[in-house]
Batch of 2 targets.
Target 1
Amino acid sequence: MTQPTHIEDDVVVSIQYTLRLDDGELIDEATADDPLIFLQGYGDIIPGLEEALYGMKVGESKEVIVQPEDGYGEYDEDAYELLPHDLFKGVPLEVGLGIELRDKDSEEAYEVFVAEINKEGVLVDFNHPLAGEALTFNVTVVALREPTEEELDHGHVHFEGDEDDEDYDDEDEDDEE
Ligand code: ZN
């Protein structure tokens, strides 16, 4: 195993960053002590950011502006659906809450957001909360390392303590059905 010198595909990358909107509002951040860790080249992070990181070295910083089409998509005014209350039995609903919906046929999961709760049902928004936003990242590369065989195989990073790898196991089960 050799220590990677710069960001390229199949390298485990740790970054610290701030994420701001056009108006300067801080939306998200990761610090050097608690960085974002991911496997480069597998779409584990949004495409516009992943693309901009290629070639960066440890300690290097960069400002990256990601347009909606390379981030969380354009805002779609029609991406709303009124769903019956029955679907949410037992779920403590509130406006702004993110929930995962699974399509019965395709088994595909969507994260949606509660836009409105009224007599007729629950209006959910299929847009990501950051859809339509230009995103400004200030990124510093904290560390680089080689992935393990298993991480490469799965296309994502493994963390100490999450041995059961739930996401990956779920996918396996779906394939077998
Ligand atoms: Zn895994």
Target 2
Amino acid sequence: MTEDIELQDYDHEFTHKHLLGLADYSKEDILFVLEQAKYFREILDRPVPKVPTLRDKTIVNLFYEDSTRTRLSFELAQKRMGADVVNFSKGSSSVKKGESLKDTIRNISSMKIDMVVARHKSPGVPHFLTRCVDAAIINAGDGAHEHPTQALLDMFTMRQVYSDLRDKNIAIIGDIAHSRVVRSNIIGLSKLGANVTVCGPKTMMPAYVHELGANVSYNIDEVLDWCDIAMALRIQLERQEDGTELFPSIREYHQLFGITMKHLERYPDFTIMHPGPVNRGVEMDSEVADSERSIILSQVTNGVAVRMAILYLLSGGSRV
Ligand code: CP
């Protein structure tokens, strides 16, 4: 690691080879990653935001689903750390000629890859990849299962507002049933001692919602009055069998579950987050997304630092 990064005093032995989901990470693991990320966040503000930490590593970004933030953020994190990076997109690959996931990853692995960042529409694909290749696997979103680096960057950003998340009230509003972000956030936030309430239409609330460890509300005013932070979620039409039947219209959804400027006036204290992409006028008013109460773009900036930290730790780094 570079000499000019001061040592930090949060001591923990990080032993993971992969990041498949936050369900596998302890509270101490999560806090350790978030503490490491502070140092990488500081690097991003330097005139030359680069460290040579991964200069001997080769990483493939294996994206079978569309992405803007996660993919660019990982690629930027890898390049900021000097890794050799190759990008795979399903649409321009031999998957279109019938090649299986297993054959694809084994062929890529034969090119001497150290780490794989994988996004796929099917839950469990990152776990499957660990059985196919020897490389470290990072889950960049698997169906509606988990999106662990999104939750880590969300918690990092929340800790910039509240340094300690214990007993903080976090509302997650929107399409709960089809969201991997909500699952990873509930797991992570609960481990850090926060109270989580999910809110959305009954048709978008999973049957197992009470097993997730979150409270449930169907009233947006109730949760906005209660929460310290409100995170809105996009309606995941791509993961719905027939999304049009889950709510009568976008207009009605916005009326019942969208965050509006009136909510900001009525409840003056809560902070607004969103994992992106935002559908303006659906999950929130456009002015809400751009308001001073919104920290959505900070989430994106912090995502690079958090991903640098996890790449560093999974590549064998102990602590910065
Ligand atoms: N938050 C998130 O996963 O965004 P992308 O789909 O653009 O990567």
